[in-house]
Specification:
By secondary structure, the protein is of the alpha/beta class. About 40% of the residues lie in helices and about 25% in strands.
């Protein structure tokens, strides 16, 4: 009965010394096994992990989906809980998962609400909340898919439920952190467009960023998050422009 309701938690890391301790502490009461897959961190990530009861594996980076799917093959238990290093379970979510384990899993997968902390402020608008993610599931029925913004895809007919509590996401400590990651992710997003055969034109570059700002700041209530809501909305618009501009540049360079 214990193994039937046991949970293996998978965490991927690289240079996460600022976040990993908080993440692992939040898993102590719910995970029967914690597996950390580390892509050769150069900071204190490994030392911090070894202060906790985890299985620490160093592996070459395979991409988000493939790395996480590899971690799932190492899991001893049927149910997987996937948490990123910059995330942590809220107290309410910890208690909800404990109750779920005591009662027994009635669904094949469980969605959680992700609440993001941006420069010290919890963001509840801009399209960032509740940001539902499937993070607890039967590994026999689901796997990670996607080049970027990977997500768990479940087999047809799987039963999916939603948990009420929040998964806490500690995203960026500064606007500069956001800018640096935006540059990296828009490279990946542009490549994803190319891989899918999409060829954005000038009109797309002109209109899409404007539409993104209007949607995030006004329609999705970014103005309610004050200064940082405005910053997020502007940078989301910039990311949209960069994604299409980089894809178009790639196409032009190939001609």
């Amino acid at each position: 009965m214990r193994d039937k309701n046991a949970i293996s938690c998978i965490v991927i890391t690289k240079n996460e010394e600022k976040n990993i301790g908080r993440c692992l502490r939040s898993l102590d009461d719910v995970a029967d096994e914690i597996i950390v897959l580390d892509s050769f961190s150069e900071d204190a990530t490994e030392e911090i992990c070894k202060q906790h009861k985890v299985r620490f594996e160093k592996i070459e980076w395979k991409g988000y989906s493939d790395t996480k799917n590899y971690g799932n093959t190492l899991a001893s238990y049927k149910y997987i809980l996937s948490v990123d290093a910059d995330e942590a379970l809220s107290e309410a979510l910890i208690n909800e998962i404990i109750q779920l384990k005591d009662k027994g899993f009635e669904s094949d997968g469980y969605m959680v609400n992700r609440l993001t902390n941006y420069c010290g402020k919890w963001i509840r608008h801009c399209g960032w909340y509740p940001d539902k993610k499937l993070r607890l599931w039967n590994k026999e029925l689901g796997k990670w898919e996607g080049y970027i913004h990977e997500e768990v895809k479940m087999k047809d007919g799987s039963r999916i439920s939603s948990l009420k509590s929040d998964l806490l996401h500690y995203s960026y400590n500064s606007i500069n952190d956001h800018l640096q990651q935006m540059i990296m992710f828009t490279d990946m997003m542009a490549q994803d467009l190319i891989n899918k055969g999409r060829k954005p034109g000038i009109l797309k570059l002109l209109v899409s960023p404007f539409v993104k700002f209007i949607k995030a700041y006004f329609l999705q209530g970014g103005f309610r998050d004050g200064f940082y809501g405005f910053v997020i909305s502007v940078l989301s618009s910039c990311a949209t422009f960069l994604k299409y501009a980089k894809a178009r540049q790639f196409i032009l360079l190939k001609k």
